[in-house]
Structures are given as structure tokens and as C-alpha cells.
Amino acid sequence: MHLWNNAKSLSFRKLSSKNLIAMDGTPAPSGESAQNRLYIKRGHVVNHDGMQQADIYIEDGSIRYVGSGADFVVPGGCRTIDATGKMIIPGGIDPHTHFQLEFGGTVAVDDFYQGTKAAVAGGTTTVIDFVIPKKGESLLEAYDTWRARADTKVVCDYGLHVAITWWSKSVRDEMKILCQERGVNSFKCFMAYKGLFQVTDSELYEIFETCKELGAVAQVHAENGDVIAKNVQKLLAAGVTGPEGHELSRTEEVEAEAVNRACVIAHQTKCPLYVVHVMSKSAGIELARARQRYNGVGIFGETLAAALGTDGTHYTDQCWHHAAAHVLSPPLRPDPTTPEFLMKLLAQDDLQTTGSDNCTFNKNQKELGLGDFTKIPNGVNGVEDRMSVVWEKGVQTGLIDPQRFVAITSTNAAKIFNIYPRKGRIAPGSDADVLIWDPQAVRTISASTHHQACDFNIFEGMKCHGVPEYVIVHGRVCVENGLLRVAEGQGSFLETPINPPFVYDALNGITNRNGDDKEARNGLQNLDLNQKHDVPDSYALPDKYVPGPALSIISGDSAVSTPHSARGHRPDGTKDMQQSTFSISEEMDTSGNRACIRVKNPPGGKSSGFW
């Protein structure tokens, strides 16, 4: 039997644009060569702004027709797929991946081939990775390194953000070159990783000013690195060395403070800001407050599949390897109600996108942190499972409808990074990155069946409704009924142009572009930048802060009703957030020496001390 019939996942060497062979040398079936004509009939086309029953015609990698089958003559030599009962949606866009990243003395196991292959398997057809220069390294040289790693390996289109890990005039000059000549429109700053990547507030201000001058989008990893460094010292001195120390050193308040600070600095410089991986209720609330304070202009937020699909209770698992496998920064939060809360923020447009932050390390790599949690390589999986997890936690629960699903998994990222409507839309002229999505199909996530190189899956055992029956990348059927067929290098680098209208029009006071004020103002009309807007009642903001490393929130019913929801929401009960927060305090003995560090109110248990 040939490899075609007995393998779930097929990998190919690329001979030319029209010829694929399997890795064992078997020629691909003729119907699977680089097909340039495809007709999808009787499906329900879902975009972020509407749904319609329609047929789609694809030719030479582009969508050429969307409409009634009665008005279209199917050309000869065209493959037809019947999508009756299925949804036709834009391919997913993951705006946050780290493939082949060097971190903590090791390298992430998903390279650009394995990572994009897994992305396509799960319905993501575009990724945006991060160039992360070493301190003192040329941004252009680091960019060239990432391009060399990716260009010959990617199986779908990819773009690049660039991190600013140090600051000088030469860095400023290279940012300009990246924007004008290299197809980059976004730059990420770290407010954490003190001594490695962290920039100061003064540097942050100047970087934001530069981004605004260039028409770029500033991004931040928002955690207070100075506070984290002090907490780490206390915890290690007290003998707290396991994975639980990771979250204890960087609690919600530490993330929330940095989110607020970044939003204020961005507002002062009139620079658009995209806050990556919002991981806690407290940070989400600060972002929502900033958006409301600035009337929805210039502030955007991303959360992760990890934050929506699991939580930080795993850090106290008795198995060290299980706990360490969940370590990322900012960390997952022990409050088990966090995932639903963050999904509600997505429903309300207080958060706009979902990424994966895919940065995978195997068991032996995580063991670098045995005896010292600060040395555990940070990162989890998610690029393959993101789409199904978001559907399960959003649409299946009734918090969002399919249109909002398309927005938060594809369209909003395309708009923010200025690749819309080429990406993120089913329309004539758009790239033929298309999913035929079966909302009734169910799959169970497992490391034993995923396409990633890592040996652990943080969503292990999760049953997800919503599966891509077909994944079409640039008009090529790459996933069909569970069979994955991709060619190494079949994807291309995707330039992200500066001055994205979705981001900059509102900042620059431009309205009614193309007659659509909602597009120019991020869906909000008649905005007065000097007018104070009340917080919506659909979720409760904190009445007060309780002192301590953890941010305690006293809130009422957090149920949300979203205008996008086709099924309505599930009511919540009232929750006192003090029950699920905790803080670090030192206790002294009678001689005034530190006796222990005590964790107050740990999740699901009484106070505990680490001696």
C-alpha cells in the first residue's frame, strides 16, 4: 500500500509549483497536484459582518466569485466540493507565534515547517511570528535570520513582528528601514525579563513615538519586570523552586499594572498600542478601562487559546513535569473563572484577537528548570488547536456567534496588521485561504494525535465541537477529511504595510473612509475624544483594589449579553474574587528573621507556608 492510503499526515518535497511527491518518492495522485480551479457549493459563507448561503469559485489561489450558484457557470476542469450543512469561513490568522525560538538555553521544537504544518491542520492559514534580536544585535540582521529560517519551510503565508530589546539611534534607524523596505509594521516591547529584554519607561515612550512617526503598531508584553525580579528573589530565598513559583512571582496585579502603564504611555504619545497575551481578569479590566477612557481609539488587546482553554490550577499539580509544561509568561491564572471572563471581553470587543503564543518545549527541555522555576523555558502549544478551542469556549457555549468567531480568529488581526481584505475575508479578490467548517463535528485534543513536535498538549482530553473538514491554502486543498497534505516551502512571506486604516484612521481623526464610519472608528460611531463614557453594565469592573501582590476584585454578576450571540449567554452566579486570589507575605520569627513566605488564599485550599 502506498503512503497516500495509510498515513494521516503526508509531507512533501517541493519540486515545482505543479509537482508534489511524498517523502518516500511516491508521486501524488493527479487530483492532488497544484489545483488551480475549485468550486464550493451550497455552503453558508460567514464573514465578520454577515452570513449568506452562497457558492464560491476559486482560481489561481484567489477567490473569484461569491454568490448564487444559479448565476454562475462552473468552468470545465474544476473540482467541486459540496459544503451542504457546513460553514465557509476565512482561514484563521494567528498573530502570535514563536517558531524555532532560542529561549533559556534551548530552542523551541516547532520550527517553521512543523509549526505552520500544525497551524494548517487546525484551520490557521496565516501566522505572524516575532523576530527577537539579542540585546545589542542589529534588527536587520535578526530579521534576515528569521527570514532564512522561515522562507524555505513555511507551508502557509507568514508575516513578522520585530521586538525592540534595546534602544539607540541605530535601532530607530533600522525600524524605519524595516517599515519602508522589509514589510514590517509592528514592533514589540518587553516590560518584563529584566536584564534580558526589558526596556525602561523612558525608552518605551521614545519607541512609541517612533512607531507613531512611522505609521507602525506598537506592541507590549505587559508585566512589571522590576516587581517580578524582587518576588523571584524572595521566593527562591524561601525555598520555593517548583513551577508554582512562576505564577506566584508574577500575579495578576503585576500584569494589570503594566497594562495600565503601557496604555497611558501610548496615549501620551498618540501611538496605537496592541497588548499581547492578556492573561488575567485584572489585566483585561485595565485594558477595557483604557479603551473606554480613550473611547475605543488606539488600544487593542489579544488573549490566547491557552487562557481561554485552561487555567493556572495546573501549576500546583503533584507532577512536576505536568506543572512545568504549563509555564508561560504571563502565566495562566489559578482563578478557574478566568477563561470565561476573557471570552466575554472578546464578545464585547474589549479584546479583539486570539493568538496562540505557540512556543513549544519538550519534557527534557522543561527540565532545565528543575530546582529553579526561573529556568523553566517559557512556552506552550496552541497553534493547531486555537480555532477549535475558541469555537468550543465561545460559540458552543453561546457567548459568541460564528460572525464574532471569524472576527476574533481572523478578520480583526487582518485589519490591525493591514492585510485585510486580502486575508480575513471571503470575498472576490481575497486570497483563497478558506475553511469548510463543520460545527457539528467533534474531536478530542491529544498529544498523541496532534501534528506538533512537542510531547505534551495543555488541552489534553478536551472535546471540541467545530472542526475544519477542508482547509484550503491559496486555493490548494491541504486538509480533507482528516488527511493533511502540505509542501515544505509552499507558503510565502507576507508584507504588513504601515498605516493600517483600521488602526490609524480614528487616531488621525479620519471618518467615513469608503462611507463606513464604523470601519474607521473600530465599530464605534460619533466618538468625542474628550467625552467620558460610562462602563457598560454587562460585566462588573472592580470596586476597589486590595493591597498585596495579587489584585483582588470585588465584583457582582459578570454575565454578559453580546449582540453577536445567536444562542444567548449562560447566567453566572455572583462571585467574590477574594476567594480565589492570594498574596505573598513574609513572616518573621521572634528574633526578627524571616521564618517563611506564606501563600495566602491559594486556589482551592487554605493558606500554606514554604519554609
From TrEMBL:
Organism of this sequence: Aedes aegypti (Yellowfever mosquito)
**What top-level class of enzyme does the UniProt entry assign?**
hydrolase
Parts forming coiled coils: none
Q: Which family does it belong to?
A: Belongs to the metallo-dependent hydrolases superfamily. Hydantoinase/dihydropyrimidinase family.
Q: In this protein, which residues make up the domain named Amidohydrolase-related?
A: 87-477
Organism placement in taxonomy: Eukaryota, Metazoa, Ecdysozoa, Arthropoda, Hexapoda
Q: State what protein this is by name.
A: dihydropyrimidinase
Q: Which InterPro entries match?
A: Amidohydro-rel, Hydantoinase/dihydroPyrase, Metal-dep_hydrolase_composite, Metal_Hydrolase, Metallo-dep_Hydrolases_sf
Q: How is it modified after translation?
A: Carbamylation allows a single lysine to coordinate two divalent metal cations.
Q: Which GO terms describe its molecular function?
A: dihydropyrimidinase activity; metal ion binding
Per its record, the protein catalyses: 5,6-dihydrouracil + H2O = 3-(carbamoylamino)propanoate + H(+)
Note one Pfam family from the annotation: Amidohydro_1
